[in-house]
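Appendix B, record 7
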Amino acid sequence: MQKETAYPMDGKTIELPVSGMDCAECTRHVQRALASVPGVTSVQVLLSAEKAIVRLDPAVASLDQLRAAVDEAGYSVPTSAAAQQMDQQRTYTRKVWTVMALVFGAVLFVVVLGEWLGLFEQITARVPFVVGAALVVLSGWPIFRNVLRAARKRQVTSHALMTIGVLAALAIGQWATAAVVVFFMRIGDYVERFTAEGARKAVRNLTAMAPQQARVVRGDAEVEIPIAQVLPGEIVVVRPGEQIPVDGVVVDGHATVDQAAITGESLPVEAGPGAHVYAATIAQLGSLRVRVERTGADTTFGRVIKLVEEAEANRADVQRFADKFTAYYMPVVLSIAILTLLVRRDPLAMAAVLVVACSCSIALATPIAMLASIGRAAREGILIKGGKYIETLARADVLLIDKTGTLTLGRPHIEEVIALNGASAMEVLAMAASAERDSEHPLAEAVRSHARAEGLALTAPAHFRAVPGKGVIAEVSGKLITVGSHRLAALQPDAPNFQATPNGKGNNGLEDAPAPGPPIDIAQVQGKSVLWVTCDGAVIGALTATDVLRPETPLALQQLRAMGIATIELLTGDNAATAEALAGQLGIPHRANLLPEDKIAVVRDYQQQGKIVVMVGDGVNDAPALAQADVGIAMGAAGADIALEAAHIALMRDDWLLVPAVFALARRTLRVVKTNLFLTAVYNVVGLSLAAAGILPPILAAAAQSIPDLAILGNSARLLGREKSKH
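Structure tokens (predicted):
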């Protein structure tokens, strides 16, 4: 019995998942059914999210009544999100077993009626050969035509061998045998399409979710137009229950937004003025006005679709092996067929060798599993850019982790402002916040937030430059201000040079000098990040900041260790005391005071030792290291251009448990691929041996060639379901 707490409830509002809807008419059926329940005051049915938002009087209407109403309308309410995915998995599994039953039924028909009862011999005797041969050619023409087209281009398709087998059967007058071979070729063709279709379904569903229309404010009216006609800077209106059509910033309104399409997270988030929202997400319980930043293919969702579609190009080494094997496979089979004819003097045995050796299963063994894995991951909010990264991740043995925004929440706050050399604390904070006004770093936001809380007004800097790994330098009210690490405080600024080359290379006109060594008690800043503030070359103060460790991180690292990841190390540009305090909580080694180039050097050092390195970062200052690593994983990449570009795997929400989850998925996928290849190898060895020995006739050889395809389909389908955690 499902408890009511299984669904998010807020007073008189219930979110009710509904399965079985596939069109707008379905949503109207469900809406009418729910609206008829006593106590229900309003109903919104969302087709793309497969749920209904119901306002009701809980004293009158119950969850069981709602479920019964949906059932009577011909749809169903799954007991939980996990149960809904399980229903989808069962549906897919039923289709697999249905195809298997049809194939084995056809095989039984061929064996019993065709071979044992002599039906094919009788048909061959009564029907003229010309008529039978014409039937064979006509029924198999779509396949024969593709084989001929490929042959003209000096290419070999998976049906080439079977086509030769059909010709061999016709050459010796066995047109009925050739007809059965063609029949099973067509069945095999369907199985291949069904297999690829099932594996690509999750990816295709992403494309179907892309917004098509937007309601735009133009003049005094709201106009609904195609997405392609929406321009950046325009205001889009999103009403309750509607899909947000663009990436943009909320300028007015409040809503609860379902971001599952981007992040895979089922829990909604609150969006108000200033919040960033993304295309393909859904505004529940509220309306929004959004200033457009990106549309169509340029949105986060559009880029996700493009990258998932292109993922097939990044093939795994095991897939490349299968491609090469297929190229050498045909000459080997032709040689075996010729030897069979020469040794046994049996054309039918030769035809059986050619028919049973169809290489479809070899070609399908890896890509089907990889596509199923990539599609499943995309549904969970994990973007994998290709099969080669799945294979590499499955063999990884070193995990390097960034700190700010990765291990921590990335929302540090200023704890203390320390004034030095005659400056006041408010002067130090005002200068620092003004210099950090245009910086996107989390620490910069912490400084600005603290200044706003103190009621300080910020001055726009005349010049600004971020120095990667060190901090920022800016001209504020005619003074040259630096805010950052001790490295930046140790540099002597040259204001004219900085102003003259705001976009130049080098160190922004700064020259190295001895560290100032300001008199601050180490115990005062132990385990904290320190931002030194200088004014015209003199240190005027320091800001101390702390961040919060993500609560799920210890469990995630425990799961990774249980998987055998022996080396897990923290890399940070922060000071040693802060790094040691955090690493000590997690029981991992650390390296502190690292610049972006230092992180790259650490990655390369492990790679030179023959290690396979995975780097996890936030995708901003870690972009070089993410790109250098064998597999770069970006945390919380939704909306972050550089994360989607630099990383090989992007986690679309900030959840550390996704890291061991993607490791587990990669290892599971590789096990499935190896099993597929093993099944294919066993089938080919046994099939070729029986055919060459004359034990397996061409008719049964044709029937048997669908078996490995079905085995691969069933085995790969396991990737679409969840695997129980072993940790």
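Remarks on this record: The radius of gyration is 32 Å. Confidence is low (pLDDT under 50) at residues 1-11, 80-86, 494-519.
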